[in-house]
Amino acid sequence: MNSTIFTAHCQAWLDDLTRLQVTHGLCQPEIKKWHRLTVTSCSLPNGLTGLLIIPQFLLTVTQAACVEEESVAGRIIKRAEGPALAGMLRSECYRLGLSAIAEQLSLLFRQYPQPGIRESLMLLCWCELVKGIEPEAWYALHLLLPATLKKWINTRQKEFNGLSALTEDYIRATRPL
Asked: Residue 139's domain spans which residues?
């Protein structure tokens, strides 16, 4: 499937979920600007390169470029649980054959409901997918106490210039009205 068509399909799905969340006051109306998607390349753990649907605002911190008019293998796996963007990330992990990361994210999102942790993990995971995620580093996170997890997140965010500030802005946009 052409990446433009695939991205449009993913964007329509995310727009529908975002519209519902805004309508029901589950997040701020400006969340829409944070939910614009694009395609970039990513480094997979097996050493290959893949295509990744990613929020546009993360391109600056990952120093990645948009990819146009290439084939995207697979299909969107629509997961409506939790915030819309978190569902898109999990779907991308499944599509790229990283189901263990997707399942780990689900576990972490349930285990750490504290404000900001889900969003921080989600955006950090996307950035690491672009640059080449080390899956092993994510597998034991569910064993950490919340304070230790926050330290781990802060340390990892420093690898991406500007990610901490973007994450804080995104967290504000996800707060209920």
From this structure: 3-174
